[in-house]
Amino acid sequence: MGRCLRGLERARRIPVTCGAPLIAAVFPKGVLGDSLTVLRSPPYVTFQDGQWPISGEKVPDLVALTMGFSIREDLDWPGLAAGSLFQRPRANALIVVRGLDTLDFPKNISSYPLENPVPFTLDSVANTVHTLFADSTPVVLQLAPSEERLYMMGMANTVFEDLPVTLQQIRGRLSQDGSVLTSLPLISLSRNNEADLLFLSEVQVLYDISALLQKHKHLAKDPAPDLYSLELAGLEEIVRRYGTDSPQFADATRILTSALQKFADDVANVYANNAVVEVVTVKTFEAPLTRKSRSILQTTNEGSLYNLAYKYDYDYAVVFNIVLWLMIVLALAVIVISYNLWNMDPGYDSIIYRMTNQKIRLD
Questions:
Q1: Helix crossing, 194-215 with 167-174: angle to 10°?
Q2: Are strands 275-282 and 91-98 parallel, antiparallel or unpaired?
Q3: Is this entry keyworded Ubl conjugation (predicted)?
Q4: What is the pLDDT of residues 61-89, one digit of tens each?
Q5: Gap between the Cα atoms of 351 and 349, Å rounded
Q6: pTM reported for the whole predicted model
Q7: 194-215 vs 234-242: helix axis angle to the nearest 10?
Q8: Where does residue 208 fall: left (phi above 0), alpha (psi -120 to 50 degrees), or beta otherwise?
Q9: DSSP letter at 160?
């Protein structure tokens, strides 16, 4: 646990204000473009006030740091202050909304510009949870309803086994009692339109996850942290069909904003305000940059002017310190033992020679 708790110290060293509120920072107006918004965070995970942009490819590292995990490279981003070594959030929920650059959340929450919005996943964070808490039963849920992508691990297999995940299952859920079709004011949205149904099905998934979390509040008592990752693309279909100036887009934005706030409140309630909930809004994802690879047997030096060696492995410093100090300890032990053996009096210090000397005297 000590290894993962040190992760909170990997953020840039910024003093932490005692008694920070649940939503730790106030973001000034003027954020344009894609954004990262923190809807909920515990007092010991503090997001600073400012307009510091964060790259899209660094979002998984940010999630790992908020959960107290170590990352391969330091995150030089002043938005996240150094956290407590003895407290860690019990859950982290990240929702990615495609189709618009920002949502009309309350002004008293932390929000930061998002640069280089390339597609990303939380697979690295899920692998860390699985590795560090293999003996426990953490909840790991990664879901993209529009693409029918689902990954569950640990207790998620039992808690969310009845969760509709395919589009056919979700549409069947919409026809049942208590669905969002009957509980939400659709106004300009139609239940007979394909794009509208896709958007409403994703909102239904948010409501169903909240209901299941309220039903299984024992999840917060497990020592392992839980991870939730949702990607919503229904609003993107609304924009593609109706445009951003349409009443359908305005109604869908209002419904989604309310659903996300309710989801954040439910997650914070289940985990007793020990959960972080972030929302990433991106109008469209950029194609990730690709890097050409070459064989390690290639003899030309086109890629490196000075023929530099490869970077050290991530565990190099750990292995080096273990070997170094072990060698120093063994060397000191050999020196001390050799010194004592050299200055030992066999007739006085050794019981073998002492017994032999006494036997000779008796004879």
A1: 80
A2: parallel
A3: no
A4: 999 999 989 888 888 899 998 878 788 89
A5: 7
A6: 0.69
A7: 160
A8: alpha
A9: T
